[in-house]
Amino acid sequence: MQEIWYSLTELSNLLNISKVAIFKLIRNKILNYKVVPHPGGKKYLISSEDPYIKSLLSKASSVLVPPADTQLSASNTSSAISQTIVLSNGLASSYIPEKAHKIAMARFEFLEKINEFIKKNSDMNKTDAIRLFLSQYNNREIHLYLFDVLGEISIQTYYRWQKEYDSTKSYNILIPLNIYKSAKPELTEEEEKEFKKYLLSPNKPSLMTAYRLTKHNLYLKNIPSPSSYYTFKRYAEKFIRENYHTYILAREGEKALKDYAAPYILRDISKLKPGQVLVADGHTLNFEVINPYTGKPCRATIIGYLDWYSFRLAGFEIMVTENVQAIASALRNAIVTIGKIPEYCYQDNGKAFAARYFTNIPQLSETGIAGLFHRLGTKPIFSLPYNARTKVIERYWKLFTDYFERQAPTFTGSNIDDKPAWRKQNEKLHKALHRQYIPTIEETIYIINNYYIPFMDSLPCPHQKNKSIGEVFNEAKGEGIDINNLDFLMLESKNVKIYRNGIRFLGRFYYNEALFGISGTATIKYSFFDVSKIYVYIDNQLLCAAEPVPLCHPLANYEGTKEDVQTLKAQLSLQNRLIRKAKQDLKQILGSAKKIDIPNFDPSEVPENTIDKLEKSELLPALPDYERHLPAIENANEEINTNRNNNNIEPLFRYDHEYYEYLLKKSNLAPHEQEWIEWYKTTDSYRLIYASNKNQEEVL
Predict the structure, then answer these.
(1) What is the pLDDT of residues 582-596, one digit of tens each?
(2) Residues pairing with 508 in the sheet
(3) E strand or H helix at 165, and its extent?
């Protein structure tokens, strides 16, 4: 093939690129060119044998161009068909976009119309005729369909279009360069290969970083790289548009491919029934609450069960850490709220949900747990692991964050970029204006139940647009369920130690008389929805329901109210009952024991004051003070027999203040009783309870 030297204008028309772009290639010494004299200066000529130009010319010549006499009418303006070249493998290598084809045909018809107008008005000056036509056209008086495609046209634009068309008589010259592009921005083979290494890297370098590294690597290999940054950018954008799945898989991984590129399953929710399916998942709260175990702020976990059809939160539980018992407690609350057992429970496939607790495994038969769902008569469904698309509750948690968590005073933000201003560094003004109040778990539960859920109930149901979420959910409610049947398996459990004051839980003691005398460990079951009692189990058997122990006023008789005095008396009465019970139990045990007989023992031979001598020698423990002040009773047996005959037996008292109150009510006191009263008034017990005459009257 004979070598041809093209000028910048000729080459620009052939390749449909600007003369500025060609001149940049010349300036970068990429093209084979020569400079020849030209009137007014010099002229650049480019060889057709240049490898870069030859490749561009071969691609440009492959575009199919319609005949020059093809016209565009008002009826077929919008039906222009893109022209493509199909290679042997069936793929399109170059094409004319439909929009570019449409504009080129409109330009061609515009030239035809204006030339016809000039011929019809041959008696006018040609320039005046052109200006008249353009004035009517730009004022939307004629050829409106062309104006909608081309917009306003100046006389200079008309002259340029006409000159370009007359020079080639080719439709190709009227294709707009800013729309018509090749199938992909032109990068050399080496540039494309090197650039893809960074574009598809899992380390995710930025576009500018990939461009600079590509340029540097090609420079080190002495390989020409004529393309600019914007050419690389256009190539990357087009590659991502046409190969988004490859781009996401290479940079983000398979999970991102499934979440963002692969098609998802469309579900027909109308085939479900309200209350038929509950969907569960955990969510870390985006605000802080008080940890009930440590008293410090923490981000707790909420476990929720969502009614799939009505999109309403049926039940939830808030725990410091997500565990199996918390999930069971949330399910219990959902069942109580909806009033019936759901047919299906759809939940996450994480460790907590897939634990053995939920499956009927023989190894659990000895624990009394035969499978929670099997016991309730509902069928569990576990979602695919690490697949958020299968859990509709994920969308609900986003609404929960927007409508509820952002209103909390301790809002932490859903991510690092979402942090409120007062949590950021050096924001002294916002920290000074912020008044932080950290709610407890009980307060959070109360606000959710009484503020957030009623608000969500008022919103339109996504599956029944003509009804609210609350209306659809109320239609799903059943007749109710026996709560007692759910408690054993569905309450939170914890192993605790039993102290003399009961069980310490949530910073306070819980007690029941059934715990008296029991030491060791026990299992308690509880729910944060009701901390007024806990259920105590020993060896998987329910022992009692313990309640919080009330705290007594340190100076109940001096500074306290009547309620404080009554609380003190109730605690003292409890102590006395338990001591009496201990003595009765001991009597029952010792009552069946045989009397120990000492051979050759005569009690009359025991010297006087033997007991005192034994006490001094520490062989016997010392008697209590109040027993030492009890006077000796002569003829005690005769007095006891007399009282029995008269049915005047004194009751037993296990505490000093009870015996004191009993003696005050007697009309006649024996000398030893009077002496005991005088001694009791010197004790601390008397000063604590009866020091004030006014308080004494209130007590008595």
Answers:
(1) 888 888 888 755 555
(2) 505
(3) helix 155-168
The residues that bridge with 524 in the sheet, in sequence order, are 494, 536
Task: Report the alpha-carbon distance of residue 582 to residue 590 in Å, rounded.
Answer: 12
| C-beta of residue 509 within 8 angstroms of C-beta of residue 549 | yes
Contacts 24+ apart (CB under 8 A), 147-154: 149/77, 149/102, 149/103, 149/106, 150/103, 150/106, 150/107, 150/110, 153/110
Quote the DSSP letter at residue 627.
Answer: H
Sign of CA dihedral 248, 254, 256, 260: positive
Cβ burial, residue 556 (10 Å; 0-12/13-18/19+)? buried
Q: Which helix (H) or strand (E) holds 581?
A: helix 562-591
pTM to 2 decimal places: 0.48
Q: With 0-12 CB in 10 A as exposed, 13-18 as middle and 19+ as buried, what is 188?
A: middle
Helices 19-27, 8-15: axis angle to 10 degrees equals: 120
The dihedral through the CA atoms of 292, 293, 299, 300 has a sign that is negative
For residue 499, the cross-strand partners are: 502
Q: What is the pLDDT of residues 142-191, one digit of tens each?
A: 999 899 999 999 999 999 899 888 887 777 778 876 654 444 567 899 99
H-state helical runs in 221-299: 229-242, 244-251, 254-256
- Strand pairing partners for 495? 523
Check residue 90 and give left, alpha or beta (phi > 0: left; psi -120 to 50: alpha). Answer: left
**DSSP conformation class of 505:** E
Kind and range of the H or E run holding 52: helix 51-60
- The secondary structure of residue 624, as a DSSP letter, is P
pLDDT tens digit sequence for 677-697: 888 888 877 776 776 444 444
| Residue 165 to residue 159: CA distance in whole angstroms | 10
Contacts of 639 (CB under 8 A, 6+ apart): 633
Question: Residues in the chain, how many?
Answer: 700
Residues near 505 by beta carbon (within 8 Å), at least 6 away in sequence: 494, 496, 524, 526, 534
Structure tokens that stand for 51 in this block: 């490898």
Most confident of 49-53, 197-201, 479-483, 653-657: 197-201
CA distance 438 to 285: 13
CB atoms within 10 A of CB 404: 21
Tell me which residue has tokens 């319609």: 66
Helix axes 229-242, 244-251, angle to 10 degrees: 100
Contact (Cβ atoms closer than 8 angstroms) between residue 233 and residue 207: yes
With H, G, I as helix, E, B as strand and everything else as coil, classify residue 265.
Answer: coil
Q: What are phi and psi of 198, to 5 degrees?
A: -90, -35
Q: Is 478 within 8 Å of 469 (Cβ atoms)?
A: no
Element containing residue 665 per DSSP (H, E): helix 656-665
**Which structure tokens are listed for 433?**
């204006």
Residue 608 makes CB contacts below 8 A (sequence gap 6+) with: none
Residue 363 DSSP code: G
What does 20-51 look like in DSSP terms, one character per residue?
HHHHHHHHTT-S-EEEEEETTEEEEEEETT-H
**Six token digits for residue 650:** 């004194």
Beta strands in 234-311 (DSSP E): 277-284, 289-290, 297-298, 301-307
| pLDDT score for 89 | 30
Q: What is the pLDDT of residues 264-297, one digit of tens each?
A: 888 888 888 888 999 988 888 999 999 888 889 9
Helix, strand and coil content of the chain, in percent to the nearest 5, comes to 45, 15, 35
